[in-house]
């Protein structure tokens, strides 16, 4: 089905779940086929995590504040009523624990507040590029747009690069950024990038911004049929005055339009106000979404006991 027409977001495509399973052996792809009351069927891409001690059935759609979608046989998002029905069924006794968020850029997206005891709220930023690159760029803050032009005039070039060498160049910049942020190492391990590159094929691109041949910024993007998702970004601060990030975002807007998708999805901002403001300056809208978490009482009790034991061991 994915070969015939990919899902609207890469995070609901097989390559994403397969990459997680390769990078993290405790995960297994677990797409569910659900039959609706009218006899039609939909697919919900999920991953299942395995417990090494107890046979808990736990699912995620998707990990790390990601999202999934309820997809029809035509690989488009199911109508809101159908998605609501499926979400209700999955969060009411289907398994021991499930955490899932629906792709918030789908038509008619609505938060699922009444469906579970726990909601983890998030916000992503995205630009509708359906009117073309020039219209999207015109929607930027004037200062941001001028800085992108200045970067190009100063010789900053942005283009996708392929292969192991490109990933090594990008990951080196990401490691430098992690050290600068005081977190030691990137939150995304290199093995996950490698797995996504393997299973994503041409639908994962590594973009590098260069100045005088030197890599100064970069990003990794993932394509669904309806979006370009800017999954990961890095920049060398000593080249910040060149404004390579501005130039890179303009290049990615043009890439999204060339690919024929509707959305340039800039993802979440990690609770960093400065990052969110930068995306606002790019002309992005903010889209709230929620991860619905539903747990059976036995699993909830197990989780509490385990957490208490960990705290006690830490104090000891």
In short:
The chain is an alpha+beta fold and 316 residues long.
List the helices and strands and how they pair.
Layout: H1 14-23, E1 27-29, E2 32-35, E3 41-44, E4 47-49, E5 58-61, H2 80-90, E6 97-100, E7 118-128, H3 133-138, H4 142-153, E8 157-161, H5 163-181, H6 190-200, E9 204-211, E10 214-223, E11 227-235, H7 244-259, E12 263-268, H8 273-281, E13 285-295, H9 297-315
Parallel strand pairs: 5-6, 11-12
Antiparallel strand pairs: 1-4, 2-3, 4-5, 6-13, 7-12, 7-13, 8-9, 9-10, 10-11
Helix pairs in contact: 1-6, 4-7
Write a structural description.
The chain has 316 residues and is α+β, with helices and mostly antiparallel strands. The chain has two domains: 10-119 and 295-315, no CATH class; 130-261, Gcn5-related N-acetyltransferase (GNAT) (Aminopeptidase, 3-Layer(aba) Sandwich), CATH 3.40.630. The protein has helices at residues 14-23, 80-90, 133-138, 142-153, 163-181, 190-200, 244-259, 273-281, 297-315, and strands at residues 27-29, 32-35, 41-44, 47-49, 58-61, 97-100, 118-128, 157-161, 204-211, 214-223, 227-235, 263-268, 285-295. It has an eleven-stranded mixed β-sheet, sandwiched between helices. Strands 2-3 form a two-stranded antiparallel sheet. It starts with 13 loop residues before the first helix and ends with a helix.
